Amino acid sequence: MKQIDIPSIHPKISVLSHDQIKAIHQASLDILAGMGVRVLDDQTRESLKEAGAHVHETEWIRIPPHLVKQALNTAPETIVLSNQMGRRVMFLEEGKTYFGTGSDTLFTVDVETRERRKVRREDVGRMARLCDALPNIDFVMSMGSPHDVAADLMYLYNFAEMVLNTNKPIVFTARHGGDVDDIVAMASQVAGGKTRLRERPFLLHYAEPISPLIFPESSVQKLVRCAEHGIPVAFPSGANAGGGAPITLAGAMALANAECLGGLVIHQLRNPGAPFLYGFNVSTIDMMTAIVCYGNPEWNLTAAGQADMARFYGLPSWGFGGATDAKVLDAQAGLEAMFSVYNALLSRNNLVHDVGYMEYGSTSSMELVIMVDEMIGMCRRFVEGIPVNEETLALDVIERARLGGGFMDDDHTLENWRLAQYHPKRLDRMQYDRWVEQGSLDLSDRLNQEAREIMTRHVPEGKPREVVENILKICETHR
Asked: What is the pLDDT, as a whole number, of residue 5?
């Protein structure tokens, strides 16, 4: 029989045609060159002016297309993040998708009482420890703004809590450029020096402009500091349709894209070739409630469109998924979170954040993070496609069954069942009587039980005492 091994199709989606991509790109260039961006940092305005940008109305900078093209040419196509032991684990490039949590909720669902309360510093470390234990959560963000830490110290302590409770890559936020310097100093303690950290970074910074078209001094300084340190950075616009951007998705994307490209220009002027993650957060302001929606189809559309734009630019892409506007872990939470996870994998966004966000980004939930870990496994199984080869066509197995055998106890089944099927860890497939015997627990109960077990049993590999002391010393210096 002729050997059969046919390449598999891996399902994916695209929501923008080439002509639509070009139209959005051109609109963004027109915004940058015609209206410009308001840059509230004197040194950066001067750098842009020296590079060929035009200053008008004191703080507004018109950025010509050739500077955008130059920045796109120097920015790398791939960003590689290591774990904290120095092993390269995340390859932000075409076809690869990685998931992690979000940054700054004010509330959390207490895993012990199951009540919503304000975030405390310890919650940041506990969430990092939870993520450290979950196989489909690839990176960690702080997932909270602790109310028991001074605002000017919060980002430093958040990073310390994360780095001391997980060995996975970290996406961090900061108050200003000085925070970036301090966090790089902490990360250097873990990596074994600044040179080693630059060679194998385990962290990526998340900064933002203010829509429409305002680049605050702190945001610009964070961009520049990351460029100087060679630390990967994302500069996603939050140009939400109907709020900081036009109500139409095309207009919101054009504006958000302009803001992202403006940040890229500033970043690459400071250090050509420094790693920059392209993308934006474009959802909608619900006209009935005035909230920024996390469970709507529009953000999923713009996220998929952003992946199309990233491929056009040849840059790795930012994304979102695994979040919900629901207040509790109910059917709405499952529906909305699954929709966004599925979309993120099909559209091939590279770094997907906000896993575990509830209540339109206001509340974190350990149970939801675990549920999304399961969703990611299911969706990854789907996008793997269907392998077609001699082994999977199984003609010899069919022949044996035809002659009086069966499939259940055939060697082929015993050898392949683990790979041929997806086997959920948390979803219930028991017969009814067995389910009753096990306590009749619903999914929410089982997820809470698992979260509490992880908090009790999982201990990440620790850092040397000297490293821990030096990290905390950096935090304490600013008290």
From this structure: 76
Same domain for 191 and 310, yes or no, is yes
Residue 219 and residue 360 in one domain:
yes
DSSP H helix total and E strand total for the chain: 18, 19
Task: With cut-offs at 50, 70 and 90, classify the pLDDT of residue 56.
Answer: confident
Task: With respect to residue 43, please indicate whether it lies within any of the assigned structural domains.
Answer: no
Q: Do residues 294 and 335 touch, judged by C-beta distance below 8 A?
A: no
Residues in the chain: 479
Given a contact cutoff of 8 angstroms between Cβ atoms, the answer to whether 89 and 136 are in contact is no
pLDDT, one tens digit per residue, over 424-463 is 999 999 999 999 999 999 999 999 999 999 999 999 999 9
Q: Which residues share a beta bridge with 318?
A: 351
Main-chain dihedrals φ then ψ at residue 411, nearest 5 degrees:
-55, -35
Q: What is the pLDDT of residue 58?
A: 85
Give how far Cα 10 sits from Cα of 158, 322, 380, 441, Å.
Answer: 38, 21, 10, 35
The answer to whether the beta carbons of residues 321 and 279 sit under 8 Å apart is no
Q: What is the mean pLDDT of the chain?
A: 96
Question: Is the separation of the CB atoms in 3 and 293 below 8 Å?
Answer: no
Q: Tell me whether residue 253 is in a domain.
A: yes
| pLDDT tens-digit map of 231-262 | 999 999 999 999 999 999 999 999 999 999 99
Q: How confident is the model at residue 2 (pLDDT cuts 50, 70, 90)?
A: low
Q: Say yes or no: 109 and 197 in one domain.
A: yes
Rounded to 10 deg, the angle between the 249-270 and 65-74 helix axes is 70
Pair (229, 135) in one structural domain? yes
C-alpha–C-alpha distance, residues 278 and 346, integer Å: 18
Quote the CA–CA distance of 408 and 405 in Å, as a whole number: 9
Q: Domain holding 261: CATH number?
A: 3.20.20.480
Task: Quote the longest CA-to-CA distance of the chain.
Answer: 86
Whether residues 317 and 295 share a domain: the answer is yes
Please indicate, yes or no, whether residues 132 and 276 belong to a single structural domain of this protein. Answer: yes
Considering the entire predicted model, what is its pTM?
0.96
Total of domains in the chain: 2
- Whether 471 contacts 182, CB under 8 Å: no
Burial degree of 151 (CB within 10 A; 0-12, 13-18, 19+): exposed
pLDDT tens-digit readout, 121-147: 999 999 999 999 999 999 999 999 999
Q: How confident is the model at residue 409 (pLDDT cuts 50, 70, 90)?
A: confident
166 assigned to some structural domain: yes
One domain for residues 330 and 361: yes
Domain assignment present for 416? yes
Residue range of the domain that includes 227: 73-383
Residues 201 and 141 in one domain: yes
Give kind and range of the element (H or E) at residue 171.
strand 170-172
Residue 14, token pair as written in the block: 């695209």
Q: Tokens for 57, please give them.
A: 């109305």
